[in-house]
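Why does residue order matter? Because the sequence determines the fold. Keep that principle in mind as you read this record.
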Amino acid sequence: MAQILKLSEAGYDAISADSKNLILDSSKECFKIYQEGSGSITTAANIDMGASGWWGVEYDDIVHDLGFVPMFRIFFNYIEEDVDDVSEAPMFGFTGEGTETLTAYVDSTKLRIFFRYVNSTEATETRYYKYIIFANKLVD
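Structure:
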């Protein structure tokens, strides 16, 4: 017989509490952090696309080599130290004269983080990110 570990919020009995009042329930799948980190991506909108403006695309690869497609989360911000202005990917935004897209792709070996920037003039932009790769499969 499998052992089950439950941890409830203060004021609730772990044995009889509803799942919304449990902090941990080992009978359910829990996210298990495999790898986490941070970095930055700088892209130069230096490709002249005529009427579409100036484009730039860059990406970072984070290798995990799990051998399966894992769950993940990514958070972006504009200023490295700014913890009050954070967005979760995917993010599509407008910044002054430009537009940007921050997205990600994951496969069985890597997490790829994309930053696409389009501006009416040549420009360089940097975005800072934090990522979490879980040891949980995204698909079976």
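The first strand starts at residue 6 and ends at 8.
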